[in-house]
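In the current project phase, the collection of sequences with tokenised folds has grown. One resulting record follows, to show the layout:
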Amino acid sequence: MGALELAAVHGVGLAAEKVGVVVVAALAAVVVLGRAPRVADWARGVAVVGALVLTPTLLVIDVWNTSQLRHLRAHPALAAGAVVAGAALVAALALALRRHPSAVALAAVAALPFRLPISVGGTTSNLLIPLYLVVAAGALARLGSRPARAGRGAQAAGAKPGEAQADGAPPPGAPPPGAGEDGAGESGAARRVRLMEWALMGYVVLYAVQAAYSTDFSKGLENVVFFYVPFALLYWLLRELRWSARLREGCVGVAVGLAVAFTGVGFVEYYRKALFLNPRVVEANQYDNYFRVNSLFFDPNIYGRFLAMVMILVMAAVLWSGGRRARVWGGVAVLAWLLGGLITSFSQSSIVALLVGLAVLAAYRWDAWTTVYVTVAAAVIALIVVVAAPPSLHLGVTGRGGSASNATSGRTKLISGGLHLFAQRPLYGYGAGAFAHEYRVHERASGANAVSASHTIPVTVAAEQGVIGVAAYVALLVAAFALLFAGAGRSPPRIAVAASFTALVVHTMAYADFLEDPLTWTLLGVGTALALAARGRVEVGDAFARAPESRAAWPVTTRS
């Protein structure tokens, strides 16, 4: 085959990949947005299976000719065996989850932090392989469950009218999808959910479309297949669960157990002055006057983000403990332990995110205006300390080499570079995933690891997707905050989720990963389910139905 023919084949293959990325994003949108009876069960099933099959297929096609797959190309039998083994593992897990549907939430929370380093396209990506297995198995189990119809199932089991079955199936005679408490029309919560989900999946599809013209298409493809599509399925699974008090407490317990264990590992690293993972942080520690730990994470900021989210949940349980001393003192002990881990990570962005999340909890628990005054005063004091602090504190603002760039670990340079890229193409940007490539080109930054993101999500969106992407991003944030905060004042679990999401969004203003982080989709999924449950909405024919939320998790009286 001549050079011209090879170029033609490559062009056709690249075009097919670009179409495939848009198709797989659209399939994920069908899964999330399709609700019976508007979308038939079989149509959603086709979309789920299509997303599960097409997502890894696109990735394999994209990296097939790279050195990472050289061994598999030379040994096709080994590749086939790996595929069969993976499918068997997913099938076995799906069978277990089909018998215990709510276990998908516990498994997902347990898998959230664990990343495995995989070389893809010449770079090493830390992928959530365990979480991918849980999502694939949960999606198959969800499809394999037999929907219970009104008038059977619950009655056969002897359930009383209005009760949900033990397996989460809906009660007979439940109102149709989207109906309010009187079943006459769409409730306010359902409208907010619908708007948020359209904004969420609209952004995902837009991202896939803008990846098609990206100057770094492979990066855009990786973000879609590694993060957006599988996490959309995760959101769907969590949204469809009936979040009982027992399930909520179980998930928080799993997260707290992991955080306590990770903090212990971090303390060992700090004591030994040696990290188990992440050679880049090891190298940075050799030049800094302080030692940063990242426990079993590959980044101290991701480690700090996880600890901050868990601490917010624990603090919510303490604040709404109902006077139970065991819960209060146990929560205080856990918070003190995790705070130590957060401090040793030296993640300023995580500490700021934690403070913001705690401020949200305080505003609901006590008084909003008092919280605002205290927060502003604390911010002013912190600013004075940063500006006036001596060089010995290593804040990077004063002393030799002091600058805002040093204080923010180079963030200001990345932001200014990102804004420059935005000014070059303000309408549609350089394409999804193109920030790192274009920053190195325009700023003449050398080295493959010179930059991976702007570390400020709005700037990344502006540079890659232009005004169009920024508008979609802002619409998503507005819809998400409206959903999570509306009517949350009487529900401590919803307050905890809203505070955690707020803290996460704040963290993304100083660090990368918004929709690339499964925590975002997890909080949105749980928050959506709780918002709908608070309105008494239960879907007919849904084996993973939601029942009205129980107040037993944190049984106290909260202010309106």
Observations:
- Residues 147-184, 399-406, 537-560 have pLDDT under 50 and may be disordered.
- DSSP finds 20 helices and two strands in the chain.
